[in-house]
């Protein structure tokens, strides 16, 4: 799946398997830019932020690879990323993956958290509706991701699918290198309990999205 | 220049009717928004023009230790020349050896031409109820003087080229707890976050032109005239990045990149948006 479909000329050093799109931007793009120059601009723009915020915007190895190819990562690199990210998934110690679907519905709808305008200590939501259709009755949904209506029913409530979805939400790049979906568990945006509740929202036969 | 004479109350009344409905029926809401946009682009009912008037007064007001107005400020086309200046910003200025956007340049003129301590001006960079913003008003006034002209920023000086390349790189740089970059939300056609449609700014051409040529804008949901500085500040908030420094080089670099994508867009500001 190609999220970014053009403009790969900037990073000349990156392995580019795709021919250049003949867009206006691609034609006029400056050749490669020294990333330390970019870092300097970033530092002058965000340098006064608290250390924990600065740590957050420092790309890890996975994001460095994604940035270099603008998410259109060559397949050998993609395999490294998915292997690395899958290894980060921490499954619940008690082996129970499904929580409370009603609580999960709330987490999926809650878009708050982790913005610089938020009060400290605010518990973040999953903001799933920003990108996904889920319950049919919720019309305010985004389209950056696929629809999740009928998610559990379509998968016949298969325990293997439950496990896979847990890992997907915990670390979306465990299955899709450079996915634009956040790595909710790995980046500590959501707790294990929140993820279990969302899973129940997706997989409980009583959950409205499976009706 | 167009001045508003009526209709502000009508616009606000109308808004309070449709805003809560936006989350209900999405197709109907999108049509409503289109209709609403067409109606309120009428300068007679756009409160953004009040900011234009306030900006004109501020431009002429003698201030600072030197007791002079901003009328001799060089925005790139020569001292005091306003017509078309905004269409060519950001740009490189030899006297500072930097690429500056309009707000950086205005701050520089305030400090150097007027001898004004800009601490208070910067503190009021984004207006709030009871807290007007000199910068928003000045930008509205100056940008309005480029109406009917096409976005055409110079990209000849090495520092202008550097800014464009850095801006492009920053546009794609992912980070923060959600791994977001500008491109997460603005690199595909026809996408939405919740109900808000997202312009694809990764491509040069019409969408970028229409987007950039409509800033500064009067934002009805905030009852305020907003500039690109505010838009990008708000996008970094949604990106879950730290608050960017006002009038910093990174924001200017991103603006250079966006203006480059938008080259040829015909400016019509202040516009009015949700």
Automatic annotation (TrEMBL), chain A:
Residues 1-24 form the signal peptide. It holds the Pfam family Cytochrom_C. Keywords: Heme, Iron, Metal-binding, Signal. It comes from the Bacteria. The keyword Transmembrane helix does not apply. GO terms for molecular function: electron transfer activity; heme binding; metal ion binding. InterPro entries: Cyt_c-like_dom, Cyt_c-like_dom_sf, Thiosulf_SoxX, Thiosulf_SoxX_II. Residues 108-206 form the Cytochrome c domain. The keyword Repeat does not apply. NCBIfam families: thiosulf_SoxX. This is Sulfur oxidation c-type cytochrome SoxX. The lineage of its organism: Bacteria, Pseudomonadati, Pseudomonadota, Alphaproteobacteria, Hyphomicrobiales.
TrEMBL record, chain B:
It catalyses: L-cysteinyl-[SoxY protein] + thiosulfate + 2 Fe(III)-[cytochrome c] = S-sulfosulfanyl-L-cysteinyl-[SoxY protein] + 2 Fe(II)-[cytochrome c] + 2 H(+); S-sulfanyl-L-cysteinyl-[SoxY protein] + thiosulfate + 2 Fe(III)-[cytochrome c] = S-(2-sulfodisulfanyl)-L-cysteinyl-[SoxY protein] + 2 Fe(II)-[cytochrome c] + 2 H(+). GO terms for biological process: sulfur oxidation. GO terms for cellular component: cytochrome complex; periplasmic space. Its EC number is 2.8.5.2. It is found in: Periplasm. Heme c 2 binds at residues 182, 185-186, 235. Residues 1-25 form the signal peptide. Binds 2 heme groups per subunit. Keywords: Electron transport, Heme, Iron, Metal-binding, Periplasm, Signal, Transferase, Transport. GO terms for molecular function: electron transfer activity; heme binding; metal ion binding; oxidoreductase activity, acting on a sulfur group of donors, cytochrome as acceptor; transferase activity. Gene3D superfamilies: Cytochrome c-like domain. Residues 162-262 form the Cytochrome c domain. The active site is at residue 235. Substrate binds at residue 231. It comes from the Bacteria. Its cofactor is heme. PROSITE patterns: CYTC. InterPro entries: Cyt_c-like_dom, Cyt_c-like_dom_sf, SoxA. It holds the Pfam family SoxA-TsdA_cyt-c. Heme c 1 binds at residues 73, 109. Belongs to the SoxA family. Heterodimer of SoxA and SoxX. This is SoxAX cytochrome complex subunit A. It comes from Bradyrhizobium neotropicale.
